[in-house]
Amino acid sequence: MLKSNQANPLLLRNYGQFLQEVEKDVSKVEEYNGRAILASLGDGEVLSLYEKTHMGDA
């Protein structure tokens, strides 16, 4: 589903969250959260997740 909707900010954000919570893959989390931010610049939740990833709070 993600392959066919690569610019969908909700899917990107949710997949980034999955990678963070389940897979613990920080580099992929950064990639997908970054893509979600670019897809939806006004989404505060994505920005918050990105910040938590970089601050180590997640």
Automatic annotation (TrEMBL):
It comes from the Eukaryota. This is Uncharacterized protein. It comes from Nelumbo nucifera (Sacred lotus).
